[in-house]
Amino acid sequence: MNLVFRLAWRNLWRHPRRTWLTTGAMVFSNTLLVFMIALQFGMYDLMIDNTLQAFTGHLQIQAPGYKDDQKMRQTVADIVPLAESLRAELTTASIAARGTAFALVSSEERSYGIAVFGVEPEFESNVSTIPGLISKGRFLGASDAAEIIIGAALARNLRVDLGDELTLLGSGRDGSFAAAVVNIVGIFDSGVADFDRSMTEIPLGLFQDVFYMNGSGHHVVFDAGGIDGVAELQSRVGSLLPPGQDLVVHDWDALQPGLKQAIKADMSSAFFMYGILVILVAFSVLNTQLMSVLERTHEFGIVMSLGLTPGRLGRLVLLETAIMGALGLILGAILGGVITFWLGIRGFAYPGMEELAAKFNLPARFFPQVSAMTLLIGPAVVFLFTLLAAVYPALRLHRLHPVEAMRAV
Amino acid sequence: MTAVRCVDLCKTYRQGEEDIKALDHVSIDIAEGGFVCLSAPSGGGKTTLLNAIGGLDKPDSGEIYIAGRRIDNLSKGELAELRLRQIGFVFQAFNLIPVLTARENVEFVMQVQGVPAGERQKLAGEILDEVGLAGLDDRRPADMSGGQQQRVAVARAIVSRPELVLADEPTANLDSKTADGLMELFRELNEHHHTTFVIATHDKRVMSYAKRLIRMLDGRIVDDIVQDAA
Amino acid sequence: MHRLEILFRLAWRNLWRNHRRTLIMLMAVVLGTWAMIFMTALMRGMVTDVVKDGISALPGHVQVHHPDYRDDPSVANLIAVSDADLSARFNAAGFVKWATRVRVPAVITSEYDSRGVTLLGVDPEYERDLTFVDYDSVSGRFLESADDSGIVIGKKLAETLNTKVGKRIVLMSQDPDNDIADRGFRVVGMFEANIKAFEENYVFAGKTTVQKMLRIGDQVSELVVLGGDYRDVEAEYNKTVELIDGSGEVKRWFELDPYLGSMLGVMDGFVLVWIIVIFLALSFGLVNTLVMAVFERVREIGLMLALGMRPINILGQIVVESSLLLAIGLAIGTGLSWASVQPIKDGIDISIVGDGLDMWGMSSVLYPELLLSDVILANVVVLVLGFLASLSPAWRAANYEPIEAITKV
Question: Which of B114-136 are b and which e, b meaning 16 or more Cβ less than 10 Å from the residue's Cβ?
Fold first, then answer.
């Protein structure tokens, strides 16, 4: 061990209680940061995945303007062949075409105005979690069958069950009257009543007939597997769009503008809190190191009169701080990692969070995941601020005069 | 009436590898109104004896009585009360509380005793005049000389008229003139107020003021003489 | 009394002996206090905003429905008592802000498109104080009476349907016998709302007109009562229960929307957790400062003990010193947070993340809410926990052996 390091190390343990208290502040913040950041980013991923993979997808091809107006007439022509050729070109099955309309859905006893989606029965399950949520019956079969799947809450409200008939009344693409009678073949249950009550699905072929779509639809939906590859996929899809037709490709941020901003809004308040925590730790370090410099005035005077420069003494003080900071970093990351890992297995819940979580398509219990990023980013920032806090005490050494310093008690 | 009675006190310290007998079967009686000097070379046991009498240190064995009351078996709190009400202390060094002024230091004990502010201030002013510190009431210890500090300490020790004053090398940091002044003050208090003084010292001049001189060596009393004070 | 005075004097003077250390610690306490209170004020503002907007969507603090209505909000589930009877009861009871409504799902169709909406049949005179629509800023006009034959729709919906004031639309719903009930309306006004979703989801028509269209005679879906303060609606609730006398289900707002209800509870919990976390971050520095202070003063503590000061008073002196430091920090920090709320009292524009806030249910102007109870909570928590934290170093100081302490160099 080199001499300066040994000196710094010994100096730290002259006041073990003080050193541990200062390190304790770092360990406390680091543990908290590791856990909070893991929880936070885990939550964001879940929010994105659950929201997008439920139904929206990562990318959609639409007619220009459809995203904002959602008018029946803003269509994508020959949508099934388009989806087919994209699946072939991109060698993936996670692409499906859809159409959207609003209709009055009536059972014998009840009627509700609701969104009706026309989906490709073979491919829908690759871009949406709804087919997997069927709790009763089955998903849609043939593309032109007179079938429908509805949510559990809606089934309850319409007082219908599997096998019952529903009447759809709405307006077609050209504004003319559209009507159909369909058979309930499946009931899905997402656990969120409002979501279950918000939509129904029928086969795309049937949809196109009933709503006079003439082979067109409203969106081609892509599941990119995760949000990382979206940008690349978007540009590839852009280049594959059929020439002569005016179409646009929207990514998830454009489709669900609230999502990213909700995350941003949450992030800014979280970072404010983390910032405060880090600064408080820095104050603690500043206090300790300033005291430690002041009480060693006499001793520093002696070594300075022996020819040691204030710069070197300053580096000694910084080294002491760095050792303390490194201790805090390692212990904090370990403790935070262990707690997070444990909660990652056991799950983390906060009283009252269930209702809040449901609003954002999140489960009531979180399982935060430990990663190198979440483990190190918080403690690294704390370490940096710790060093910054020691700069002032280190610079004060330049104001020291050996003779006066030696006279100090 | 005996002010202080020590019966067969023993106390052993461990210093490094060695056991040091600070008190080795020490027995003394000090009468009320006594003016006693304990003299011994460094490590002779005088400070230990003084601390034991003051209830600051517990003997390993033996009994101590102050004004007829046994004190070596009292609790910490009872000892604190005893020191507060009955004993005045003057230490060798570091006698004053740095953040308090001279007057506040003198008032300190009375304040802890619960003496009303008016009376406290009057007494403190008088006693500071008496020890020759008139006008220095508002100085803090850091702004006073060693002698001045020591006189503040004496003023504090005697201001509440304790029955017994214990002083450990009170003149150690004083010049001879100041030291004489201090001893005159002690003697006056002893004569007028009948306060018992026990002073540990190895200062010859201090010893000359004593009515009784006890010499100690290696924790034992080797000489106990009654003398005519100077 | 005298003892207390000397304790305070000693504590106060000792506090400023090492003014640098005290100032650094003070700055940390000030920053911590400011962060506690300011952040809480912002969060409270957000939650109040969410809850208020949420309540404005309900709207009404106490609501009466048919027992099945909440799970099945259809025309079949109407309040058993007639509207006239309800009016008589509530007017006689002296309620001021209350209204009855017909509230059913419907499909609105223009010549271009159709959408599912919630149709509110209202009496504009009663509705004025309750609704989120500001009558005076409606383009066109709001409804004029309960038998107005016009309809007022949201601006966003009007755009989607490609309609405007003066044009006709058709509303479709069902009557209690599940026959289609439809009627043409002329759009007489378009409203704007804080929350864009409201503009898409709600349409207003005259109550009597809607009752005729749905063939439900003099019945209504809901009765709503607005109280003075949404936090305390017990008086209104109890009175409503008494007036309804079992002929309907009476619910408070937080029962109607568990998301909003849990929001307030979660917020209270969060405030406490935040305050404690900040305190803990501070506590390391605080204890450290006290440990150093005690360490420096061993000899005078020994002296005081030797002079007969009781250990409990030594303990008191350290505790008072710590409490004084915290009290000053709290006072400045509280003042600072009050001052920093003043310039943004009238709201800060956070519309950069507007869509995200929409998703959290917030509008894009944030009004910080400095609650006296939060200020008191922060101050009390810091003082009480600070007291506990100072006990350990104070206990050490009180237990010194006077003779050892006084001779310590």
Answer: ebeeeebbebbeebbebbbbeeb
Q: Which of residues 163-202 of B touch C (CB under 8 A)?
A: none
Neighboring chains of B (3 or more beta-carbon pairs < 8 A) = C
CATH number of the domain to which B82 belongs = 3.40.50.300
Q: Tell me: do A19 and A78 sit in the same domain.
A: no
The tally of domains found in chain B comes to 1
* Shared domain check, A184 and A107: yes
Give the residue numbers spanning the domain of A176: 59-223
Contact A100, A115 (CB under 8 A): yes
Q: What residue ranges do the domains of chain C occupy? A: 2-54+260-407, 59-256
Contact with chain A for residue C39, Cβ under 8 A: yes
For the record, the structure tokens of C261 come out as: 């209800």
Long-range contacts for C4-11 (Cβ within 8 Å, ≥24 apart)?
C5/B111, C6/B108, C6/B111, C6/B112, C7/C313, C7/C316, C7/C317, C7/C320, C8/C320, C8/C324, C9/B100, C9/B104, C10/B97, C10/B99, C10/B100, C10/C317, C11/C317, C11/C318, C11/C320, C11/C321, C11/C324
Q: What percent helix, strand, coil does chain A show, rounded to 5?
A: 55, 15, 25
Show which of residues 75-134 on chain B sit within 8 Å of chain C, judged by CB atoms.
76-77, 80-85, 87, 89, 91, 94-100, 104, 108-109, 111-112, 114-117
Q: What is the pLDDT of residue B112?
A: 85
User: Do residues A217 and A163 share a domain?
Assistant: yes
On chain A, the residues whose CB falls within 8 A of the CB of C357 are: 261-262, 265
List the subunits that have 3+ CB pairs under 8 angstroms with C: A, B
Given this model, what pLDDT does residue A32 score? 92
Average pLDDT, chain C: 86
Q: Is residue A254 part of a domain?
A: no
Which of C32, C109, C289 comes nearest A280 by C-beta?
Answer: C32
* Tens-digit pLDDT profile for residues C226-258: 877 777 888 888 888 888 888 888 988 888 877
List pLDDT tens digits, range A77-126: 899 999 999 999 888 889 999 999 988 888 888 888 888 999 999 999 88
Q: Which residues of B touch C406 (CB under 8 A)?
A: 91, 94
A74, A218: one domain: yes
Q: Where are the alpha helices (DSSP H) in A52-150?
A: 66-69, 79-90, 124-127
pLDDT at A325: 93
Q: Are residues A279 and A378 in the same domain?
A: yes
Same domain membership, residue A106 and residue A10: no
- The whole-model pTM stands at 0.79
Contact call for A110 and C262, based on CB within 8 A: no
Nearest by CB to B109, which of C1, C307, C402? Answer: C307
**What rounded mean pLDDT belongs to chain A?**
86
Q: Per-residue pLDDT for C99 more than 80?
A: yes
B and A make contact (3+ CB pairs below 8 Å): no
A5 touching C, CB under 8 A?
no
For the record, the structure tokens of C315 come out as 């303990």
Residues A254-263 have pLDDT tens digits of 888 777 877 8
Contact B94 C406 (CB under 8 A): yes
Q: Quick one: how far is CA C252 from the chain centroid?
A: 15
Q: How many domains does chain A fold into?
A: 2
B-chain residues near C402 (CB < 8 A): 56
> Average of pLDDT values for B73-82?
87
Whether chains C and A touch (3+ CB pairs under 8 A) is answered by yes
In this complex, the chains that touch A, judged by 3 or more CB pairs closer than 8 A, are: C
CA nearest to C287, candidates A135, B211, A23: A23
Are A31 and A71 within one domain? no
Q: Does A109 touch chain C (CB under 8 A)?
A: yes
Confidence at residue C207, expressed as pLDDT on a 0 to 100 scale: 93
In this complex, is the C-beta atom of A179 within 8 Å of any C-beta atom belonging to chain C?
no
